[in-house]
Amino acid sequence: MTSPMPQPPLIPDLAEQAPPGPLLLAFSGGLDSSLLLHLLVEAGLGPRLRVVHINHQLQANSADWAAHCEQIVAGLALPCRVVTVTVDKDKGIEAGARQARYQALFADAQRDAATVITAHHRDDQAETLLLRLLRGAGVQGLAAMRALDKRQGITVWRPLLELPRSALERCARELGLHWQEDPSNQDQSLRRNYLRHSILPALRQRWRGADEILARTARHMGDASELLDERAQEDAGACGVSAQRFPLAGLAALRPARQRNLLRWWLHGQGASAPSAAVLAELLALQDAAEDSQARVEWGSWAVRLFRRALYLLPREALAPWQGTLSWPQGAPPPSLPSWQLSPTAGEGAVSLMRPPGDLTLRPFTGGTRMLRNGMHQRIKELWRAAGVPPWQRHQWPLLYRGETLVSVPLVGLADGEEAASCEEWFLLPPPR
């Protein structure tokens, strides 16, 4: 009897496509990620691969599902980590679960600069495009997902994106793989499921190849988005826009469409969720705010603050003032602050802080705080204002005391009587995005 011909690999060049460095697979235990796990191992990427399962705690059997995932991964002798998250249902179950999932994945990936791998496929792409179209998304939103993307400084790789789910299911059955079916996938009260089970089947009946047509549209939008990004980069250079600061002075020279494009590009580059048209209009209206205005615009978990005719983007929780007192004994590592981090090395957005010798105490800033400097008791508020420190940062940075005497202030320097030569230079690093 003639043996059946071996099937060609589903993705022949998977190993060549893989980005360099560590790889982190988001593993749900469903069909798509189960097949992708198998393909990655078969492609020889196992030594670079570790696996994370996110337990959203949305199903009664979520713990059993997590145990199943651990068992599958253990059978392949790969490292597996289960991360349990709490979903903010006020944002909607779908949006809340997605945000919690990516926060956990990106936090894990940052430990070793790993590429996050997801099992999105062509059907997912079609659903995503339709969802964003129905939300009134612009070109960047309609570009939907890309096979290789960058989010919050983390590379995201979607190797299955060009393949239909039918091909994945056929391959998984031929390989004899076992996977879990998420019962929530049948709940058509969720928008994506409604598109999946009611709308897309009707489109496929009327238009052959509807999924490929929608995926092709997403690719066209991706090309257009790249062109808009190039124009935004040119405008950013002309306007003096940086990652930390968006000056408003140069916007007036741009047409309204380019103003909106530049602002969207800046927000996206800093990892912010896309603002609605109304929020974008509020942000652009800040051009007309008073010279000394400290207005803010908030949406989702993000806030933009206006200070000295420039915009600053922050996570909303990063605006909270620091309160309390912390000890920093001589020779001990620095204490942990709620927002900013003390580090011996500089990084992006770092602020210098000189540490005099001795046992010190860290205390928060208050409006009347003064330091003996140049023979005068100078108000820290005025020194920071002259240095251009935004008001919210003034209430997050620590002041260094020896006993009851203020001896060092971030960005300002040392009190009279303190010798720079005997100090250590430390750096305050801003909250991660």
Describe this structure in words.
There is one protein chain. Helix content is 36%, strand content 20%. It has 3 domains: 14-208, HUPs (Rossmann fold); 240-318, Uridine Diphospho-n-acetylenolpyruvylglucosamine Reductase, domain 3 (2-Layer Sandwich); 326-429, no CATH class. By secondary structure, it is an alpha+beta fold. The protein has helices spanning 14-17, 31-42, 62-74, 93-109, 122-134, 139-142, 165-174, 191-206, 210-239, 256-269, 277-285, 380-387, 391-394, and strands at 23-26, 49-55, 80-84, 115-117, 148-151, 154-157, 246-247, 296-299, 302-307, 310-315, 326-328, 341-343, 351-355, 360-364, 370-373, 376-379, 398-402, 405-409, 413-414, 424-429. It has 13 helices and 20 strands.
User: Which second-level CATH architecture of the largest domain applies?
Assistant: 3-Layer(aba) Sandwich
Distance between the termini: 62 Å
The total domain count is 3
CATH class of the largest domain: Alpha Beta
Structural class: alpha+beta
Topology:
Blueprint: H1 14-17, E1 23-26, H2 31-42, E2 49-55, H3 62-74, E3 80-84, H4 93-109, E4 115-117, H5 122-134, H6 139-142, E5 148-151, E6 154-157, H7 165-174, H8 191-206, H9 210-239, E7 246-247, H10 256-269, H11 277-285, E8 296-299, E9 302-307, E10 310-315, E11 326-328, E12 341-343, E13 351-355, E14 360-364, E15 370-373, E16 376-379, H12 380-387, H13 391-394, E17 398-402, E18 405-409, E19 413-414, E20 424-429
Helix pairs in contact: 2-7, 5-8, 5-9, 9-10
